[in-house]
Amino acid sequence: MQQALARHHSIFLLILRRLRAPLILLIVLFAIAVLGLTLVPGPVVDGETSYLSFFHAFYFISYTATTIGFGEIPYTFSDQQRLWVIVSIYLSVIGWAYTLGSVFSLLADRSLRQAIAMQGFVRAVRRLREPFYLVCGYGETGRLICDALDRMGLRVVVIEVDETKLGELDLHSYSADVPALCADAANPETLQFGGLTHASCIGVIALTNDDATNLAIAIAARLLAPKVPALCRAEHTATSANMTSFGTRHILNPFERFSETLALSLHAPKASQLFDWLTGLPGSHVEQRRDPPRGNWIVCGHGRFGRLLVDAMDSEAVPVTIIDIDPKPDGIHRWVQGDGTGAASLLEAGVREATGIVCGTSSDVDNLSIAVTARELNQELFVILRQNHESNRALFEAFESDITVVPSRVIAHECIAILSTPLLAPFLAEIRRRDEEWCGALLHRLTRHLGWRVPRIRSQRVNLSSAPALYRRLMRGETITLERLLRSPADRSMALDCAVLYLERDDDDHRMTPAADEKLRPGDELLFAGTRRALEDVALIFANEHTLEYILTGRDLPGGRVWEMLAQRKHGKRSPQLP
Amino acid sequence: MNLEKVIFGFFIVLAATLNFGFFVGDIDNPVHHDVYELFAALVVSLIATVLKFGDRTQIGAVHLSTSLVADLQLVAAAMVWGYSAHVAGAGMTPEMTARVVSLSGGALFANVVSVIILIAETIMQRR
After folding, report:
1. Cβ–Cβ of A53/B85 closer than 8 Å?
2. Does A532 map to a domain?
3. Interface-testing mutation among B8, B10, B18, B43, with chain A (most A C-beta atoms within 10 A)
């Protein structure tokens, strides 16, 4: 690491190296001019020919060459001297012009500017003392994730190969400074400059739109920083299999993730809505949408996306008709040859009797064309649209599909959910195992309490470092239930706008949505969902002795030793129980 | 043969020889120490310094530092000369001459070190 860095530290030396020739020329020209001036006979003073000494000659040439020009010293020059001065003036002008020209061309030099940018980046990353994420690829997904991380108060370092995309980063205002580098993230050295091996690096997120690059990042992270979790995007099944083989922590495959979600919403719409509500972008609204109906489905385009969706529908035993340019009859599904953009192939696939259609080709225009035609033929059709490019967003918004799948957003959502709260993953896994009724009841309860806006999710551990006040009280043997704890620090008669989703005890014991009278124990880890304000209050209650005292007893604790002593005498023994 | 190496070696050795030429003689006798030689030694030493710029190796760094020492000493010597010849008013007294020459003696030592490094580097490469 040190050696690699040293290469970029020598910008000063690089400049000196480039300036070698002009500097030598300047020294030589100066020397010639000064030497000549001492040798040329001057005016006759007191019957003797005077000569300029080195001191005077150097003085004269110095101010002449720099175009200051104080005049002829110590005596008015002789004509021989003036002749030499003419020569020296032109010599020095050439010298300066050449030197300045070299300096300016050096400053405009691309490789030098890159070296300077690289040095600034490396320095900025090395000076990071807060935990940060290394995000490789600042595309649509990268921007969403950087936004979310920034809002969560986490630092980000960005590596992006495309200079124009990196330019957008400057226009975007983040609350914290984001060090960014324009380089190929597939190069392990670049990753090290980006802080992969930095002590404060808490994760690598590989989001480039090239699977090979993401794979390279995953391998580099696995070998160079095995303890740093890596989240890697993979659009091909082969890539994700490859990543799994060497133990990449999280593999983000947008199509696979969506097909899972679709399968879930086909057999458990409530659970799927609960998922959406919990994993959406914080602050955005979740629309109460139509659930995908069971019945005949048509899938247009049997590519990466289409294939996974067909698999998902097969597992839910939904009959599927596939429209593709190149049909590969397999005996299970009905295949129709065509591209689906024309009414003929749609009618042949039975669009009038179908309940849903998936427009899943890799062309946005084709997908929209299929969707519009199919809607005209069947108004009731449930439409799932695949949007490949963010630039076509307006078109997709204009067409009111039931679900629009944007791979970049699918990844961003999942990534943010994983990053923001590790405890969310076991909770979501548990939801998948619960039945539909339970999910519906939970969703109803949570949304009635917190609204349809995506809540903030946060986990909080009851230990000495993150919840000192609560931890000390619990260790003293006090009994504190969730109901007594989650009250507003401004007015304890009001409950906080948050809910406890999950409680994890140290000994592999956990509670789903613990009841209000659940007693806390030291070492518990709680998963909260709620408004940002409520979650900040929770953190305050857990950490601050005074707030906690007020929440539990309604008394304001006196601050300072003297007041504490006085208060103790007055109250005698403090009773911590709620009246 | 590498032209760059020839020029490099030439300037380093020339800086040392010119410096030596100025240094030899009675230390306080102005007649033994020609100011033109001091000028030449200073100019060649400056050029040798610039030639050493930008070398990233360890030996290059030592080269540069010895050269900078020589420059510093010679510039100091030139300043003392300029002061005694023009500012002090008494001209080149034996006392002042001794100062100038001893400063250039220090530069000579640095230049000798430079030459030794050059030789060591050449021997190390064995070709």
Report:
1. yes
2. yes
3. B43
Chain B: closest CA distance from residue A86 (Å): 22
Would you call A282 helix, strand, or coil by DSSP?
coil
Q: Are A392 and A401 in contact (CB under 8 A)?
A: no
Compare all CA atoms of chain B with the CA of A24 and give the residue at the minimum distance: B47
Residue A577, in any domain of the structure: no
ipTM, two decimals, is 0.85
For residue A13, give the chain B residue with the closest CA. Answer: B54
Domain tally, chain B: 1
Q: Digits of tens for pLDDT over chain B (127 positions)?
A: 778 888 889 999 999 999 999 999 999 898 999 999 999 999 999 999 998 887 777 888 899 999 999 999 999 999 999 999 888 888 889 999 999 999 999 999 999 999 999 998 888 876 5
Q: Give residue B33's domain range.
A: 3-125
Specify the pTM: 0.65
| Parent domain of A527 | 455-571
> Where is the domain boundary, A420, A438, A470?
A420
Same domain, A227 and A312: no
Question: Does one domain contain both A351 and A460?
Answer: no
User: Which strands, in side-by-side order, build the sheet including A356-359?
Assistant: A334-337, A320-324, A297-300, A356-359, A382-386, A403-405
Q: Cα B40 to chain center, whole Å?
A: 9
Is there a single domain that holds both residue A236 and residue A283?
Answer: no
Q: State the smallest CA–CA distance between residue A14 and chain B in angstroms.
A: 6
